[in-house]
Amino acid sequence: MSSSSNDRPNFAAGNGLLPAIAQDATTGQVLMLAWMNAAAYDETLRTGQAVYYSRSRQKLWRKGEESGHVQRVEAVYLDCDSDTILLRVHQTGPACHEGYPSCFFRQVTPEGVKVVATRQVDPREVYGAKS
Amino acid sequence: MSSSSNDRPNFAAGNGLLPAIAQDATTGQVLMLAWMNAAAYDETLRTGQAVYYSRSRQKLWRKGEESGHVQRVEAVYLDCDSDTILLRVHQTGPACHEGYPSCFFRQVTPEGVKVVATRQVDPREVYGAKS
Asked: Which residues in chain A (28-87) have CB-CB distances under 8 A to chain B?
């Protein structure tokens, strides 16, 4: 298939930011959802390490730059509308800044939201007392 | 865990709309990403069928209402920031309106974007000639 404008996520559709899902390449577990702008996407493709755009900090977020919990990207997919990105990754350490393997560690049940995963690390050990 | 405001997705964080990931409950395949407002979320929980909010049509989108390709929801998860929803679903037919099992049927490769899945149905047979 030749390269074309369809080969590129449609960042304009998200006013410059598109959701990117990280999925564990080995287990299939959905690890997290973050956001990418064009620069984050390009750096991800170029380096093979997941780079997102932090909406709160308003800058590129090289996943693991502080925690060491990097994501090596095995494969990148676009959805049918080219407005969502899916990464299959090899995750070092927990994906979640709360210390859980996945950010989706809470299940909605009729009795309320319940933690259904086991903490892998203590976030205070990773990020220091400020967490 | 007692019910609290943390038991609810933080729809305000997304100006009323949050991304919702649908994952196949059996295979773990990521099927699609769509959007939910509070009404879509509540109806999903109440009925056990995935309901999204269509940004293009600006109304509730009961997944499968036209195609029959409904999603029965097995479990619902919230992420650490309560601003992304993950559904584990049992999908009837293809999840994607293009007729593929998943919307993420295109992989980004050094040679461009390649279709890496097999079409399950012809969209024209599902939606009629207008597709």
From this structure: 28-30, 32-33, 45, 75-81, 84, 86
Interface probe for A, chosen from B30, B69, B74 (most Cβ of A below 10 Å), is B30
The neighbouring-strand residues paired with A108 are A113, B76
* Three-state SS at B16: coil
Which whole-number Å values give the CA distances from B59 to A69, A123, A128, B35, B37, in the listed order? 39, 40, 45, 11, 10
Among B3, B21, B44, B80, most A C-beta atoms within 10 A, so best to mutate, is B80
Collapsing DSSP states into helix, strand and coil, what is residue A39?
helix
Q: What is the pLDDT of residues A38-81, one digit of tens each?
A: 999 999 999 999 999 999 999 999 999 999 999 999 999 999 99
Amino acid identity at B7: D
Structure tokens at B117: 């899945």
